[in-house]
């Protein structure tokens, strides 16, 4: 009975971390982007401001603007990919996938389109089809580090972390110290509950000049998961409005407090059965 209880607690802890990871991705998307699809700029408007740097109001405006452009020309590769990316930023993954399906039909041999299509499939929860699409887009003689990293992220979601980490390291061999890959590697360890390893990789990622908001939000998440809420809020405050950063950390505190209460109950139950 004790072993069964221990396994249950372990599974519960992994599920808890996965749930908080999903929360962290959703919250950071409001200011930056988990979806992991793109940090590119949105065409049109007054600037070429990167999606990762947009706030909620700017993302909503860009969604309307690019949506109108997509309606006028749904076969345009650049517009379609931008529209799918920003839809994912807004949590509209099913619609983003539908857009990328149309773009892929118009550009069936374009590896860039296939890669974005695979990422849209993954964001919509279609993990095995996403894996197949990403692998189809890859060129073995000249491997693309971005596709290796994307494949790794899908494998992590399929609970195949060793395969995922091998791909991240291959990507880093091609693109040393790439912050997005280091971040994915860190989050791979987070998903398995190894928070110190996750923090090590994320700190290295954040130290890179090209690190974007998503990477720093992931580091804030890991700090919070280790109970360092002040540090987590300080990191998050550099990316979000102060009130939102505080709200995120308060929510994380609440989630962890609830999980600790459930763990205490599980411990008592284990003691009672021994």
List the helices and strands and how they pair.
Layout: H1 2-29, H2 56-72, H3 77-89, H4 93-106, H5 111-123, H6 127-137, H7 145-157, H8 161-174, H9 179-191, H10 195-206, H11 213-225, H12 229-237, H13 242-272
Helix pairs in contact: 1-11, 1-13, 2-3, 3-4, 3-5, 4-5, 5-6, 6-7, 7-8, 7-9, 8-9, 9-10, 10-11, 11-12, 12-13
Organism: Georhizobium profundi
Signal peptide: 1-31
GO molecular function: identical protein binding
Short characterization:
By secondary structure, this protein is an all-alpha fold. The chain is 73% helix and 0% strand.
Tell me the series of helices and strands, N- to C-terminal: HHHHHHHHHHHHH
Q: Looking at the structure, what is the overall shape? A: globular
Strand % is: under 5%
The total domain count is 2
Structural class: mainly alpha
Fraction of residues in helices?
over 70%
Q: Which fold does the CATH topology of the largest domain refer to? A: Serine Threonine Protein Phosphatase 5, Tetratricopeptide repeat
What Rg is obtained from the alpha carbons, in whole angstroms? 20 Å
CATH hierarchy: architecture of the largest domain = Alpha Horseshoe
Main sheet attributes: strand count, strand direction, barrel closure: none
CATH class of the largest domain: Mainly Alpha
Distance between the termini: 8 Å
Extended strand count: 0
Count of DSSP H/I helices? 13
| Mean of pLDDT | 78
Outline the low-pLDDT stretches. 1-41
